[in-house]
Amino acid sequence: MTEPRHSLELSEQLCFSLYTAQRLVTAAYRPILDSLGLTYSQYVAMLVLWERAPITTGELGEQLGLDYGTVTPLVKRLEAAGLVTREKRPEDQRSIRLQLTDAGRELRTRAAGVPDTIADVMALQSEEFSTLKDSLEHLSDNVAANSTARP
Predict the structure, then answer these.
(1) Which domain, by its residues, includes 65?
(2) Which residues form a coiled coil (predicted)?
């Protein structure tokens, strides 16, 4: 039998390091986003909407890597908060177009300091930040490309 290449020790697991970092970073966002009345999921949805609205619900899900069943309740909560409107597209009644409201556009101004506040919490130099972000994107691309081939 071939000796395994990787240890089963928790301290050696990349997945655990990623999980711990993700949990701590998301927790650091919580008080900042609470002051804006947003959850982390709503915040990342708003980031997409601030860049691309008007877009469809499907396009939002694609940008966030979320399925329709996850995006729909998220959008409904943003609509209930008065940040977006949903309307059926005349050319395709099954497709919902999302538009920012005035309150949704104004929230962008209030949220402008969030990235710098989180960057301060992370305490990374610009080069470290860029390297980590590039490495995580590369990891995500690799896993996405290889996970369909694995059970």
Answers:
(1) 33-111
(2) none
